[in-house]
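To: structure desk
From: M.T.
Subject: fold request, one chain
Message: Could you run this one when you get a chance? Sequence is below, nothing fancy, just the single chain.
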Amino acid sequence: MQKSNSKPNLLPALATIMNLPETFKQIFEPGLLREIDAKAKPVFVKEGTVILDIGQTVRTIPLLVKGTLKISRLDDGGKELLLYYVHANEGCAMTFTCCMEQFPSEIKATAETDVELLAIPVSVMDAWLVKYPSWKSFVMRTVRNRFTELLNAVDQLAFQKLDERLVNYLKEKSKATGSTLINLSHEEIAAEMASSREVISRLLKKLENDKKLLLYRNQIKLLKDL
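Reply: Done. Structure tokens follow.
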């Protein structure tokens, strides 16, 4: 998968993105849907685009309509650590907290696939939390779910062996992209898992020998038994 550090290519989204009441009617009340339709900007972002980087000011809240965002952190040496994914009909917990506290972004958000989203201005955040119970529930549920995911990630780091973490990583990557074909090199996987390419390559080869997956050049095909 080709990565890009360029600024987002913000193009008009597809027509289906504007069918707001149909897309979100199970999540938000009619009054909020009307405000989202009036104030949110539809955006299309290509795969690999960094839409928010560490240190940038959070000016809009992304509400995903289609695709997946990868949320990650960077250490002092520039190594990237995967935190969680944001899927369709979800928001990003870290952008919620940054905009409420008016802090610069502490995460990097990258389009894992082509993404359609609604960019909601942060200026409406406080008013919507008071005015719309469904928005308050959505924000709190998002923060709670991401906190649970981060706890699970800590548990994996502390208690799981690297081979178990690798299997979980591959399953989550497959779920995020909606495909059993993962377009990543061993070095890219090692970077996201804070490991070395040699160790990841050895573990992947063992999984291939166990008929859990197939290895190709910069591609991994997951099998049903994984």
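Reply (cont.): Residues 133-159 form the longest helix (27 residues). Let me know if you need anything else for the meeting.
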